[in-house]
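Design request, tokens follow.
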């Protein structure tokens, strides 16, 4: 059985059994299986024909059809048993008979828990007195004004829309559509959102592009789990909305593919990236990012992580006193970070302080935390230069390379990615 994605850092998984199947076969696992079909095929009709071929009971058709994709690829996702999924793979051998282009089964993924920041055990609570500019944002260039004219999608575990430090204006819930949008049962997406766009409101923390319009695109559940199908749901939804920048601090092991190939997520990504800048995390396996998707997508801005404890170069700072465990040396590539020729830029990603659900704040580390620094910088640039979407990434990369100034220690490949610099980037 072909598997496009496997183990990773932010993550996709087996779903719980569908209700009817769970009642009939309580130990039967269910897979989300993505079918990409020829243009012009009616998706519901096609899905029902395939389910008939697989022997799925007719009274289960509605619940088994998980998603249809209409803004990017022409496709849909079915919830199938392992036997049905294997048979579906064999259908691809006669793909022309069914208008099939690819059949993709996702494996299980999981996210790293986020540590909630408290003052316990700390010499001082950094949020006790006034609004804080986190050191990572100090390092790349702190904001001077709001950036509330840019739409940013966080494709993640969702965003807690009740957090008063965040301007969450819309979104979609691909895990539980009945939830609406604006829920994060895990915390990862809310943390990412704060680094991108926490408000300048006199309390809490400040983001790179304060007050940007955030869209909560929930593709991972409260355990940090989802599937290729749910991630595709988020990408496809974003392609139908007015999104300038999207952050994807997620991925999985995967071979390099091209647009129009057999990876439906990459195909959707290629279409969506025609109008949206996608920023993705490189991964946390101390490996070459070329073996991780979407980090190895040529159309993505792939971000590695470095350590910064004091908001300035020099390499002399120690781990902050509150709420975070050191993972690497100040001003070096983070010990966990992926690297390689697919990485475009690096940003702070160790002991990052940001928003967390239920009006809290948390420290977290990972390339997941580095990517939103770049996403926020793209949003800030587009707020100031709304007509320059096509050149925004090149301007940021070129400007950052010209300002990096020092070689980052600890890199495993000897290729010096530019250190993100978001201060006074000129127009193209």
């Amino acid at each position: 059985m072909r598997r496009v994605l496997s183990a990773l850092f932010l993550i996709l998984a087996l779903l719980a059994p569908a209700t009817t199947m769970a009642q009939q076969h309580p130990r039967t696992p269910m897979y989300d299986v993505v079918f990409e079909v020829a243009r012009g095929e009616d998706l519901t009709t096609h899905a029902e024909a395939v389910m008939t071929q697989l022997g799925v009971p007719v009274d289960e058709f509605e619940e088994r059809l998980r998603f249809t994709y209409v803004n990017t690829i022409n496709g849909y996702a079915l919830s199938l048993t392992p036997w049905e999924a294997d048979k579906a793979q064999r259908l691809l051998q006669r793909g022309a008979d069914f208008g099939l282009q690819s059949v993709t089964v996702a494996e299980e993924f999981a996210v790293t828990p986020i540590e909630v920041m408290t003052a316990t055990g700390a010499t001082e609570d950094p949020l006790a007195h006034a609004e804080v500019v986190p050191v990572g944002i100090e390092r790349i260039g702190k904001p001077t004004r709001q950036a509330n004219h840019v739409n940013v999608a966080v494709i993640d575990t969702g965003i807690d829309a009740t957090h008063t430090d965040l301007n969450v204006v819309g979104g979609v819930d691909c895990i539980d559509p009945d939830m609406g949008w604006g829920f994060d049962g895990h915390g990862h997406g809310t943390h990412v959102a704060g680094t991108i766009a926490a408000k300048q409101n006199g309390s809490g923390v400040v983001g790179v592009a304060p007050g940007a319009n955030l869209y909560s695109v929930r593709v991972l559940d409260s355990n940090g789990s989802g599937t290729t199908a749910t991630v595709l749901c988020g990408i496809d939804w974003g392609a139908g909305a007015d999104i300038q920048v999207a952050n994807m601090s997620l991925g999985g092991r995967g071979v390099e593919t091209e647009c129009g190939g057999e990876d439906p997520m990459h195909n959707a990504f290629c279409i969506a990236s025609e109008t949206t800048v996608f920023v993705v995390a490189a991964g946390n396996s101390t490996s070459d990012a070329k073996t991780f998707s979407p980090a190895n997508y040529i159309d993505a801005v792939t971000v590695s992580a470095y350590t910064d404890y004091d908001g300035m170069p020099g390499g002399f700072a120690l781990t902050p006193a509150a709420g975070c465990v050191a993972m690497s040396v100040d001003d070096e590539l983070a010990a966990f970070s992926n690297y390689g020729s697919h990485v475009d830029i690096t940003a702070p990603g160790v002991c990052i302080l940001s928003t967390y659900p239920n009006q809290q704040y948390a420290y977290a580390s990972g390339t997941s935390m580095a990517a939103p620094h770049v996403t926020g910088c793209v949003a800030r640039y587009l707020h100031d230069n709304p007509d320059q979407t096509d050149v925004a990434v090149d301007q940021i990369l070129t400007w950052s390379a010209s300002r990096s100034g020092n070689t980052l220690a600890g890199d495993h490949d000897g290729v010096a990615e530019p250190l993100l610099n978001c201060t006074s980037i000129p127009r193209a």
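Comment from the thread starter after seeing the answer: thanks! Confidence is low (pLDDT under 50) at residues 1-26, 118-123.
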